[in-house]
Amino acid sequence: MGETEMSRREFVKATGASAVGGAVFLLGAESALRAAPADESQALAGWGSPWRPPCPKRLSDTTRALAHRAISGEHGKGLVPAPVELSPSDRALSPDLRYARAVYLAAQHAPLRILPNELVVGSASLLEAARHVTPIAGDPSTSHTTIGFARGLVEGYNGIRRRIAERKARGGLTAKQTEFLRAMETCLDAADVWRKRYLAALHELASTSSGKERANYLRVARTLERVPNDPPRTFHEAVQSLWFLWAFQRLMGNWSGIGRIDEMLGPYLKADLAAKRLTLDEAREILAHFWIKGCEWIGVPGAGGGSGDAQFYQNVILAGVNARGQEVANEVTYLVLDIVEELHISDFPIAVRLNSRTPDRLLRRVAEVQKHGGGIVAVYNEEKVIAGLEKMGFPTEEARCFANDGCWEVLIPGKTAFSYVPFDMLSHVQNALGLHTGAVPNYPTFEAFYAAVMDGVRRHVDWHHAMADNWCTQGPPTPLLSLLVDDCIEKACGYYERGARYYILSPHAGGMADVANSLLVIRDLVYERRVLGLQDFAEILRGNWTGQEHLRRKIARTFEFYGNDDDASDAMMQRVFHDYAAMVATVPERKGVLRPAGISTFGRQIEWASQRAATATGQHAGTYLASNCSPTPGTDLHGPTAVLRSYCKLDFTQTPNGATLELKIHPESVKGEKGVAALVGLLKGFVALGGWYVHVDVMDTDLLRDAQEHPEKYPNLSVRIAGWSARFATLNKQWQDMVIERTQQFMA
Amino acid sequence: MNVQPFGRTLDARKRHVTLPANPDYNAPPLTVECLARLFGHDSFNILVASEPKESATHWELYTYAQSGCLAAYLPGYTPAEIVSGAAVADGQWHYCAMTFDGRTVKLYVDGKEVASERVRRRTGVASVAGPLCVGHVAGTTLGCDGELDEVRVSSVIRQTQAMPMQPYEDDRDTLALWHFDPVFAGVGASRETDPFRAGADAALQARKALGAAEASAVLVFDCMDGGAQSRIRMIEGIGWFFDTSLVFGCSGFGPITRHGSGATVGVLALGEEFTVLSAVADVAGDHRACGRTLATTLRGIEESRKGLGRLVLLMGDCHVPANDALVQGFSESFGENVPVAGGSCPQDGLLYYKGVVRQSANLALLLAGRFAVQMAMGAAATADGIASSRREIVARACPSDGADLLLLFDCVSRKQEGAITAPEEARQQQFKGLSGPVFGFYGSGEIGAEAVGTSARGVGGHLVAVALTASPDSPAPPPPHAR
Known about the structure:
heterodimer, A: about 750 residues, alpha/beta, three-stranded parallel beta sheet, disordered N terminus, B: about 475 residues, alpha+beta, eight-stranded antiparallel beta sheet, 6 helices, 32 strands, about 15% helix, elongated, disordered C terminus
């Protein structure tokens, strides 16, 4: 196949400033072409066959083939470094204007990628972006947020432009604020340059093709004639608009979550279906292409570290109530689940908002998708989430609109600047024991010891509050991101300069289960049974249990730890949880920054392992301990229901920023109709008992071990990590071990 | 340079030893030292290594294949490999050492610096937790063709220019230390009056004294108040630190240890050096028959243990003179080629067999292992006589002023109130001038012999001393000590 033909079929090109006028030249095409061979078999050579779940085939072969290519990492490997630099005069501009200039250059020069038969176009094709850096400008970019795509979709860029003009007209702005608004306008100009380049490219491709392919190019081009500048009129326009809004942010390295996609797109689909402009099957194809394009960063060299190839914080929220309290779930909700089930794409992790009135149809579909594994679909109990947000002071209507930050921490999308600060709570137990200093103070009672542990936590929380006071008073420029964040235009201030409506900086405690379990053992062995003194215990832990294997095992056999529905251990967990949350809640808000308590580790139990000494619960130093709000691996011995019951004894309205639970369930135990029913029961129980967020990964640990040894056999085997899923083969050994070591649960 | 090992060594051709992962083993500054006698140099010889090779904080001290030169490998740094020109795989003992202060890796052979290399930290390599290994690297099949001794990992840069003149001390900077000499036994005692607490307290001390070695049996002597329920609680306490199926012993007038007077419970944990076989039999009114039953049970097992040092301990509800009938019955059936010692609890005393409290029963333990036994017996009736008799029998049993384990059985010191005062007991139990752990009990009828090779009896003496000394040619189990 010659290059000419290749470039027609695989339109990977970049245009200069004159591109809008029609002059097109290849830039960076050589590398891109290498990464994008013409046919599927070439593209996937050496990658292996993707696993597909046994489910009905609803999507076309063309769509499935596009999915296969995207998942293989073909597009991610084809990302290129930004082909242009800022000029010296650009670099002399103010940070906001300099940033906007970089956005403009990226829009002008970033390679375009259009594949035949794609129903949605637009590619974040710059390598720096996938590495969390602003291309060309070099500034840090933003993640852990979900910006206002809902408003952006409805207003279009033109609506945003009008708001900026209106704000400028009202005046009263400082020079910096004026510059910021100007930078925002430049970003809008840039977005239109990018749109026009795609439009021109689509027309050019149409001019050199024929038949169905030509028709498809023109069909996509028609959507871009209108969106995202103006509000969409059809479902296809809405999907294309949402993609363009999102992808342009990603082009500049901003990794936003999507938010409530069914609420955003549902009305357009409903209207199309009513007018018989579209069938559900056609709508599913269009939406599937959105999902496929969400995989375009798979395989990016140097991205993700050891935590997998999909940690781009692009969560999608489904279902739940809207601001008025009405259920959102609609046909888009089910189409998304169809697509995820069939293509097994985990790059948009799904979080479904459940409540006690969630339709059975939705619960069943969630369970059906979950049983295929990959942990792609997690669930919130929105009743607890909303109650927690209300407790923080959010109006009910606002709280009902919650989404997440692209991971699982909750926020109000499009209005919130968010971050969290993790800390290892277990270190405070180990400090009180003097494990790193060698000196164990005399604690005459357990209460004295407990107080010493919590004093350490308190010092950390105080530090957090002091640090939060000045958070986001200055930071990297964000005129592009701020376009979709409420109040940034009104205040003429950026996301990192207190322009957003809400600022949330949440302390996140890690290792809480290990803390509670350790305290349980110390209370019992040292202060109640008096098996040994605290000094002796500390000495044993400093010695990493050397010579004390019998004691170590006896502790493991004797105690029912958190996660077994045991009242004593759960009470200790409740106490630690409550005391921590109450400590954080003493300063719910100060200097404009909200500080809701959260509990997480994500994967930090890996990095903390090297700093943690042996634990009183019998774990050796260096062991990967509990993740998030889950039990310590291997200590939850009585099945998932017991885990759930322990977890749900906690009052999650006290931790508005969340506390999640992971369950790794063996596939054999959720087979068939009974398995679906069991999972539905689990989900209902989760809501009824008052859980907050749970991700259920149906996965066989033995299979994971085999995949660790033979990654080539499992190229697209997905596993849930924390707020994201990843292809197992792309995790490094530590992360793989962490997933493997999670307790294998069986449904009764 | 003449380098010699201290005591026993690890034959790394046959086994390697490990300690669980601990981040402290990998954080510079570090000093890694060992004595090594390496025979082959066709392959790499691993001396000491921490964590798997893929870890950023992995380090290993080894000799290079073919050349046999001392080398170090630290993949988290550049250069990762530091190779000296000092060949050490020559069948001779060498003192090998590595120091690493975070910037410079230095290698030493026999006190001389043989390599020095500045290194830089590499990025993008993650730490992978793994054990500290002697003679091996975790996750590989690499081993060591040689013997090792005095392996020490320290959290400071030590002086490595001088040859070690004695076994290393376990000081505050020591992270891990192996002498490879057997820890024969660990002893603990408690003055607690609560039986559970006393059992746990004494057991913890014994467990700590045993280091990393596994226990093969646990002997318990006590003088707790209360009956069987009290002892059940005591054994529950012991059970936190030892498998109760290893617990044997009996009630009496109290344990004899180095922990001074007034102990309510004493615990002796026998180390991996021992193979311990046990038998129990009800008295059923005939101690002689009981002794025969015990012997019959042990005899079949005993045949397979020829070539090892052996000692039989008899104990139980065999208040003098029943103890004499017991030992006679035992010897009739078992023969007299194995030394026998032991003693009786007071009348209606309690026996502990595999963690279960029994009455009206006797038990026999056959200790087998690579050790030598010496025994002495004495008699006394007064406090002064007891003191001199004890000194005399201990001196006879331990001619070199020590043993790897000294067992004492005393049926006179507390036989009559006031026979020996508490201060005197405390003074005697310091065992001044004597090395090694001491364990025994005050009972109501000792069993022993004048010397090994003479007939054991239950009457005619009041004090028995049995000294166990590790045989110098026996292979050493690895009892590492680690913080």
